Structure to design on (673 residues):
């Protein structure tokens, strides 16, 4: 099977999806600029300006237009360069995209996808955040945050095919991650977690870029005789905790790794479900690894102390085994 | 610059005859719709005081000529978006008043199965995409349907209603820019009733002639007397033609006035009783009624028959709503929130 990057996997999915005349892409700097992260580079030349729509820097507009176009039969893929900018579009996402199906009694639905990115690299406080929990909190949205090239391609296809609004979360530090991806089209179902490493001592529950760091931590610990099981949630809403709970029942020890602030974050919900459904199997308190709870500092030394590292994950796993 | 100069607000009621070529049946239909909206909403107020209707109730009373005139310029295949004061536009678009009253009663026979209420009337089969309750934010959805139509080579025009209070937020400017930038077939209808909820126009907007805001986008715009249903209709026809012909969007500023409070709870400290009374003396429905009689379009007896029929229809809508069932609990399960079946494992709330 060919080994390609996340970027290439997303490009493959988008090229396949563009074969459907209903699909178009609307977003910031996707065309003339050549695409910030290179995902849609060359698309403008190939598909034309009508379907590769360079939008004004107007996030509410990008999402609002996508919702409206979805109502009349299009399959819009809206792109917001950074999830930090999506704050400007939260009203459209939460008050419109998430509500239209239910609030109007199921008469209409909103088959749109918002592609956006988490990430950080000395971008300081307003460009290094993660709002996964704010999307995942809202009934009516679906939230997907894949980790591998295979899942990126399959879940993006599934997201565009889905009749409901999907927030598709990428990561700026993951575009060069490589993995096996079949050439042919396929879908990975939304709302299904995956077991990415087997082990018997502790269960790590995570998603997105943290899957890769957790795998590295597991390799380190393996040399110490600790075998960690890792579950990649892949989707945050609807949340599939079945594999994680099953694993936790075997190991009795849980570690949740999520790249966001700890308080009221995604790790809180994940840990709560482990406690609720695995209480009788609990051998130790569940530990969590998150961003330090501060606005992201610019200075490299402080930034590296704020973000999650392989060492921090490994230490949290060791703590869980005490 | 395609912007038209402001038209003086024409005095209503003094035209010696209907506009040339106006079909008497059309005049009667416009009158019927206006009266139906008025009587429907008077009944809503009554049902609200009887606690049959809950939540917010924003009445359109006084503004009927704007909605009826504007919507009459649309045809099948066109789209409507509106705001939380949505009863008038829904009725003008021909939504079933039984379903509308049932929606207000929170019944499953309502337009939104009783999940939306007064602020969220919708009927997808009539491309009436709904009432939206975040001020100005739905303008972007309207630009989106126009984009979707354009990309699918469909001839539809999207008409979107909003108040003067919606023209200060960023979404208004984003919507106008997108629509003009991409020459999309949108007719923006600003219902300028002089108050953003309870804040007077001159207190909330640096420019009080709202139509002039379109100048920033080089967009065609016109200010019209929204209290004259025929003037409103003519302006809307011009705007719809312009939009449909691919020349881009139009902003219409319809000057109108809300006779009732912002919502049923509003004590209206921001305007005097005298102001409201003076405005009521120029009630657009009464003025139009006198015109129809003066023009000899219809006999007084026939008007009364029509009005009685409407009263009966409204009463029947109440009976229908009363007799209808409440929505079932399937709407508060996860399956009621998504168009595609989802599995949450383990399930939320033990579903």
């Amino acid at each position: 099977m060919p080994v390609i990057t996340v970027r290439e996997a997303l490009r493959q999915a988008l090229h396949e999806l563009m074969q459907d005349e209903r699909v178009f892409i609307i977003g910031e700097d996707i065309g003339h600029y050549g695409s910030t992260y290179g995902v849609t580079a060359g698309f403008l030349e190939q598909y034309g300006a009508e379907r590769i729509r360079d939008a004004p820097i107007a996030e509410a507009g990008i999402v609002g237009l996508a919702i409206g176009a979805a109502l009349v039969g299009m399959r819009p893929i809206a792109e917001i360069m950074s999830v930090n900018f999506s704050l400007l579009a939260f009203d459209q996402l939460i008050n419109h995209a998430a509500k239209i199906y239910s609030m109007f009694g199921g008469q209409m639905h909103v088959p749109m996808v918002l592609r956006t990115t988490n990430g950080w690299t000395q971008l300081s406080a307003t460009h290094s955040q993660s709002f996964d929990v704010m999307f995942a909190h809202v009934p009516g949205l679906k939230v997907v945050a894949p980790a591998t090239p295979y899942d990126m391609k399959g879940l993006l296809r599934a997201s565009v095919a889905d009749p409901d609004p999907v927030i598709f979360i990428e990561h700026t530090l993951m575009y060069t991650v490589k993995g096996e991806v079949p050439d042919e089209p396929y879908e990975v179902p939304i709302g299904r977690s995956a077991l990415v490493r087997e082990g018997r001592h502790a269960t790590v529950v995570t998603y997105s870029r943290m899957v890769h760091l957790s795998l590295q931590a597991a390799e380190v610990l393996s040399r110490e005789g600790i075998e960690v099981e890792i579950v990649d949630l892949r989707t945050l809403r609807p949340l599939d905790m079945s594999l994680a709970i099953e694993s936790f029942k075997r190991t009795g020890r849980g570690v949740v790794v999520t790249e966001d602030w700890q308080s009221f974050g995604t790790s809180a919900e994940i840990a709560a479900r482990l406690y609720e459904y695995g209480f009788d199997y609990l051998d130790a308190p569940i530990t969590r690894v998150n961003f330090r709870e501060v606005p992201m500092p610019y200075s490299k030394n402080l930034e590296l102390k704020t973000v999650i590292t392989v060492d921090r994950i490994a230490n949290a796993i060791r703590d869980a085994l005490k | 610059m395609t912007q038209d100069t402001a038209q003086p607000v024409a005095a209503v009621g003094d035209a010696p005859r209907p506009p040339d070529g106006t079909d008497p049946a059309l005049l009667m239909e416009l009158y019927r719709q206006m009266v139906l909206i008025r009587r429907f909403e008077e009944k809503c107020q009554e049902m609200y005081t009887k606690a049959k209707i809950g939540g917010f109730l924003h009445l359109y009373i006084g503004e009927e000529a704007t909605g009826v005139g504007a919507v009459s310029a649309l045809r099948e295949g066109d789209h409507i978006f509106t705001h939380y004061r949505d009863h008038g536009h829904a009725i003008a678009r021909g939504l079933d008043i039984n379903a509308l009253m049932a929606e207000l009663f929170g019944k499953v026979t309502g337009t939104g199965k009783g999940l939306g209420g007064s602020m969220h009337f919708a009927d997808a089969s009539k491309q009436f995409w709904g009432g939206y309750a975040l001020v100005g934010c739905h303008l972007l959805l309207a630009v989106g349907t126009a984009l979707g139509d354009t990309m699918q080579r469909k001839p539809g025009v999207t008409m979107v209603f909003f108040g003067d209070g919606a023209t200060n937020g960023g979404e208004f400017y984003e919507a106008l820019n997108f629509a003009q930038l991409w020459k999309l077939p949108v007719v923006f209808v600003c219902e300028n009733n002089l108050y953003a909820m309870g804040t007077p126009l001159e207190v909330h907007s640096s420019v009080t002639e709202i139509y002039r805001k379109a100048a920033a986008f080089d967009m065609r715009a016109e200010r019209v007397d929204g209290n004259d249903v025929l003037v409103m209709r003519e302006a809307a026809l011009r705007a719809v033609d312009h939009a449909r012909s691919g020349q881009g969007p139009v902003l219409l500023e319809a000057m109108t006035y809300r006779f009732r409070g912002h919502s049923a709870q509003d004590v209206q400290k921001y305007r005097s009783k005298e102001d409201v009374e003076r405005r009521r003396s120029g009630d657009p429905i009464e003025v139009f009624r006198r015109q129809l009689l003066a023009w000899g379009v219809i006999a007084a007896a026939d008007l009364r028959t029509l009005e009685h029929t409407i009263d009966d229809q409204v009463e029947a809508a109440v009976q229908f709503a009363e007799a209808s069932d409440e929505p079932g609990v399937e709407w508060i399960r996860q399956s009621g929130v998504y168009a595609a079946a989802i599995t949450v494992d383990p399930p939320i709330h033990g579903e």
